Each structure stands twice: as C-alpha cells, then as structure tokens.
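User: quick one, fold this
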Amino acid sequence: MKRIVIATDGSPSAREAVEVGLEIAFERGGDVTFVHVLPPDQFITARNAPALAVPHEVDLDESETALREAADAAEEA
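Assistant:
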C-alpha cells in the first residue's frame, strides 16, 4: 500500500481509525491522505433515490478541527 486514505469526522471511532491507518502507513512506508466525512444524519436522502444524498450546511470549523486532529496525530506518529 503506497497511499492510504483515512476518513475522519472527529468522532472517537474515527480517531481510532486515524491511529490504525497511520500505523499501517508507517509499517508499509505509505503516504496518508485525510478526508473529512459527514455523519449520515447530516444528509437528507431524496425520496425514490436512496443513493442520492443532499448535504445540509457544512460546519467548516468542524471539518477543520477533525482534519487538524488527524494531522496532529500524524505528526506525533
């Protein structure tokens, strides 16, 4: 694995995923890319189109915080 994409929403389980992803990247010598994801309850699913979701207004501060925490964890690792 040369590139590992790690999704985070800032939740405790996402922080665990960040740690595990960083461990794998370190062991394999891979690069890491972090992405911020929204919890499913932040989407409205369109009727008759379950695969289509329209996001509510995104809290950019929340996104920034989640990504900053992940980047800080990467620096510590």
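User: anything notable?
Assistant: The beta strands are 3-8, 31-36, 43-45, 53-55.
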